[in-house]
Amino acid sequence: MSLDASPTSRPSTKPTTRQTLSKKDTARTRALMNKHGCLLCHTENGQESLGPTFKGLYGSYVTLKSGKKRLRDEAYLKQKILDPASIELAGNRGVMPPFKTTFQPKQLNDIIAYLRMFSTHTIPSTRPKR
Ligand code: HEC
After folding, report:
1. Which of 57, 85, 128, 130 has the largest CB neighbor count within 10 A?
2. How much distance in Å is there from the Cα of 60 to the middle of ligand 1?
């Protein structure tokens, strides 16, 4: 099976987690995510599933329940994975199980790095005015 994780382009920001994973770490992280069902509810190819696709997620903006916009940066993604209900989003989006006690910090960082590979967004230095 070929891993469809080789990014065609990469975010050009300087993230705090590793920007790319080695082939081995990519395979390991993907297996970890498979094990925990992430890829049952999220796709990597842009198709909506139970949850939103991972494609283009990192670095894009999401609308919160309050109507405010929030950048999907590393901190956001981490919190959304650990405790999805702690950030309420606009719309009727279904429920994701929390993974608060599932991952070690390194595993979580690798997952974030993995998610970043599916996005060409860069984190802008200023937030949009609204
Ligand atoms: C049972 C289905 C299910 C599983 C399993 C699941 N998710 Fe989700 N996920 C969802 C749904 C539904 C949402 C949208 C609801 C929300 O944002 O609270 C979501 C939201 C998210 C978001 C935020 C999306 C956004 O629009 O900002 C991220 C990031 C995420 N999931 C990552 C993961 C990761 C990583 C895993 C595995 C560790 C995982 N999910 C496992 C269903 C799932």
Report:
1. 57
2. 15
Task: Give the separation between CA 40 and CA 86, rounded to whole angstroms.
Answer: 22
* Residue 74 within a domain: yes
List, in order, residues 6 or more apart from 27 with CB less than 8 Å away.
Answer: 3
User: Tell me: the pLDDT tens digits for 36-83?
Assistant: 999 999 999 999 999 999 999 999 999 999 999 999 999 999 999 999
**What total number of domains does the chain contain?**
1
CA–CA distance, 69 with 104 (Å, rounded to integer):
29
Domain coverage including residue 100:
23-116
Q: Residue 51: which H helix or E strand, with range?
A: none
- Is any atom of ligand 1 closer than 6 Å to the C-beta of 124? no
Confirm whether 10 is domain-assigned.
no
What CATH number did the domain enclosing 96 receive? 1.10.760.10
